[in-house]
Design a protein that fits this description.
The chain has 16 helices and 14 strands. By secondary structure, the protein is of the alpha/beta class. The chain starts with a strand and ends in a 6-residue tail after the last helix. Bound molecules: adenosine-5'-triphosphate and magnesium ion (MG). The site of adenosine-5'-triphosphate has 15 residues, from helix 7 and helix 15.
Length: 395
């Protein structure tokens, strides 16, 4: 598809020249002399880029940029002016333009700037779409199950989403802790800001610290340049610290400082940075025991445990199993391009009675596997692993 460019300039000869040139280069070009009409155009049509003159009657360039930016947060904008100086250029960029160039326009330079602006716009659009997909995926409707136990969890999520209180999510492996943490972020006022996940068990202590708080060049072997930590990246948003039971006492005291003072220091630096981050943690460990054993600081435990959410194991909410089976059959037959329409009664009753030590992740794997190996249009007992069918309890 051709990229769409809008040229706004009160000098007709200038716009005609540019239009001819850019159309030859494969762009779809619209021209407009009046900035007020240009605003109406952007309101009603989608453009990838606007190239505008800085000095025009009726409206100055800065005002035009600001207005257009409000209408379209993603459109590229290049300002051109015969009276360019550094101050104007800085002001133009600050107001939301992608670039500034001086007249007479150097056509080669213009093509480079157009490319750059359109790439940047595409990236912004892609980012927004990815975010929208995530938001869609973690809408409450996609969290399957209507047991009392799960409804209680969801009601808790809803009630604490609006606050910035720290939340700790407890539950066995595979119960959906990460899913609930993500849903909580996307239900909160921070939903348009960053959501960062860190698995605290995946990194050795020294690396975890620099991962969380960043470091400066030379602070340890291998620190070849300054690096931002996850807390800085999550500023204004939410950080999800998975397996919080695994962090060392040193990192715990730094974490406590983020919570109490809302500030961090990069490893090796003594400069303090302010951050505003909501902390959601998760663990499948008995954290109270860790506090008793002095492996977990008690003060930190209280700070993290402001709102505790407990997700019961799947065997304690068997009502959810049937709904989850249907959900995963749909999901994985789509993913594997198979037309599996259901599951036999026999297979279903085996699955409803099974205890799922691996909880929902285990059920999900069982269904995915069954979909892949099923020969018929329905899942039968043969498609379920023997490890599951052989432990069947009698009615
Ligand atoms: N209620 C639910 N509805 C649909 N899918 C779910 C639900 N709960 C969990 N899942 C799915 O089950 C899988 C495991 O969930 P998740 O990773 O959130 O669990 P977890 O508690 O973080 O596990 P672990 O302790 O092993 O890290 C994921 O694929 C998730 O999408
Ligand atoms: Mg997890």
């Amino acid at each position: 598809m051709k990229s769409k460019i809008l040229i706004v300039d009160d000098e007709v000869s200038q716009t005609a020249l540019l239009k001819g040139f850019l159309e030859k280069k494969g762009y779809e070009v619209t021209t407009e002399q009046d900035p007020l009409n240009a605003i109406t155009l952007v309101r009603n049509q989608e453009f990838d880029l606007m190239i505008a003159d800085y000095r025009m009657p009726k409206m100055n360039g800065l005002q035009l940029i600001k207005t257009i930016r409000e209408i379209d947060p993603e459109i590229g904008m290049i300002m051109a002016s015969a009276f360019g100086n550094i101050e104007t250029a800085v002001e133009v960029i600050k107001s939301g333009a992608s670039d500034f160039m001086t007249k007479p326009i150097d056509l080669k330079e213009l093509l480079v700037l157009i490319d750059r602006s359109i790439d940047k716009k595409d990236l912004l659009v892609e980012n927004r779409q990815l975010k929208d997909i995530l938001k869609e995926k973690f809408k409450f409707e996609n969290i399957i199950g209507s047991s009392n136990a799960l409804s209680e969890v969801m009601s808790m999520v809803q009630r604490c989403a609006k606050s910035s209180a720290n939340v700790i999510i407890r539950g066995e492996s595979g119960t959906g802790k990460e899913m609930i943490a993500t849903a909580l972020h996307f239900a909160s006022q921070r939903k348009d800001r960053t959501f960062i996940k860190v698995n605290c068990a995946a990194l050795p202590e020294s690396l975890l610290e620099s991962e969380l708080f960043g470091h400066i060049k030379g602070s340890f072997t291998g620190a070849i340049s300054d690096r931002k930590g996850k807390f800085e990246e999550a500023d204004g948003g939410t950080i999800f610290l998975d397996e919080i039971g695994e962090i060392s006492l040193t990192t715990q005291s730094k974490l406590l400082r983020v919570i109490q003072e809302k500030e961090i220091e990069r490893v090796g630096s003594n400069q303090t940075l302010k951050v505003d981050v909501r902390i959601i943690t998760a663990t499948n460990k008995n954290i109270e025991e860790a506090v008793e054993q002095k492996e977990m600081r008690e003060d930190l435990y209280y700070r993290l445990n402001v709102v505790p959410i407990y997700i019961p194991p799947l065997k304690a909410r068997r009502e959810d199993i049937i709904q989850l089976i249907d959900h995963f059959i749909l999901k994985y037959s789509k993913e594997n391009q198979k037309t599996i329409s259901g599951i036999t009664q026999e297979a279903k009753s085996i699955l409803v009675k099974y205890d799922y030590p691996g909880n929902i992740r285990e059920l999900e794997n069982i269904i995915e596997r069954a979909i892949v190996i099923a020969r018929d249009e329905v899942i039968t007992k043969k498609d379920i692993p023997v490890t599951v069918t052989s432990v069947q309890k009698e009615d």
